[in-house]
Amino acid sequence: MGRDSSMRCAAAFLTVALLGGCTASVDPLADPGRDPFAQPVVPSAPSSGGTGTGAGAGTSGAPQPRHGRGVVTAVVPQGSALSDTAARDFRSTTGFTLRQVEVPADELAQGAPRGTQADVLLGLDAGDALEAAAGGVLATTAPQDTTTPEGTALEGAPAATAYARDDVCVLADTEWFSANRKSLPTSLSELASGTWAELLLVPDPAGSVEGRAFTRAAQAELGGGVDAWWSALTTGGVRAGSDDGLLKLWTASSGAVEGGRPLLVARQSLSAATLTDTGTESTSVAVPGTCLERMLYSAPTQDPANADGAEALVAWLRGSSAQRELAAAGVAQPLAAEDAEGTVIGWFAQPTDGAVSLPEDEVAAARERAQSWSKGLQGSE
């Protein structure tokens, strides 16, 4: 028994939650085993000037979504379609039918693929939302039926409404550290010292959601010394590459290859999938001091075909049933802490104290830095 059988059970979820694939369209009533957003949210005190702050409003103040008919088309990150349960609840609550179109996560800010008329984008983080707004993809005004929780509004993307949180952290394989009698690192800065870089896997900073978030976390935490820190990591032997390749090298994942590494930069929700046979413990944990507070946003597009349906979907996501479903599926921390109680997110993927946030006016610089870091890694795999 041991970890292998439980990891086989979670293998499909792991692949969905972390990896991308070919662009596809999914049925409005998606497979209930699918990852609804690969992404979490625990309410915490707002961070001054940050793009991602804990939602303090909770679902009790969420407005009622409007009712109507017709199809609402949502563009979602690859592998992150809302579940069958969620899609049915949306239809029974509002009368609208949900159609979901998947795109690679790092292309979400570009909006719907050619030939697709989209009403809403779901699963945007702050960087995605700001890029999409600047590119004319999103509506220019806030939705009428709901408001974004206090402390989460984006000045450069007024149409974006926060509905969940999924921090990006360095996740550690706890069984590996226990077997090797080694203590966890304690901060981002420590990773560039000693032999930690030789144990670390970092997705491409420019070509992945996780890599870009890791860049923002480092910039927020380390300031002017961030480029020297990254240089020390690369010199020290950090392994960078594509999400799918790195997942195979992470010792906590199912079917990991011999000689894998125990530290992986990933979404914190992944800890809700790496469970023991009994399902009572996770075999991975976020390393303290390494997390970026990462809110998830929904936003109507600039010219939705079904404006009422778009408003309904954005508002419905703030309601308790939708929030509970995100937590139960193990992919998002809901806006109200009580909606996570008794779920895998509540048990295994609660956001850690001290997660950093990056001021909105520094996000563009972080994206440029990620591009620079990525170019320096060409040929590393």
List keywords for this structure.
single chain; alpha/beta; 381 residues; 5-stranded mixed β-sheet; 6-stranded mixed β-sheet
Question: What can you see in these coordinates?
Answer:
This protein has 381 residues and is α/β, with parallel strands linked by helices. 29% of the residues lie in helices and 14% in strands. The chain has helices at residues 3-18, 84-94, 126-134, 174-179, 209-222, 226-236, 243-249, 307-316, 320-328, 344-348, 363-375; strands at residues 24-26, 71-77, 97-103, 120-124, 161-165, 168-173, 200-203, 239-241, 263-267, 284-286, 295-300. The chain has a six-stranded mixed β-sheet. A five-stranded mixed β-sheet has the order 8-7-9-6-10.
Strand order of the largest sheet: 1-3-2-4-11-5
**H/I helix tally:** 11
Can you write the helix and strand succession as a string? HEEHEEHEEHEHHEHEEEHHHH
Oligomer: single chain
Number of strands: 11
- Could you tell me the mean pLDDT? 84
Largest beta sheet, briefly?
A: 6 strands, mixed
Q: What portion of residues belong to β-strands?
A: 5-15%
Instruction: Give the fraction of residues assigned to helices.
Output: 25-40%
What is the CA–CA distance across the termini? 33 Å
> Unreliable runs, pLDDT <50, ≥5 residues?
4-50, 52-58
The gross shape turns out to be globular
- What's the Cα radius of gyration? 19 Å
Structural class of the secondary elements? Answer: alpha/beta
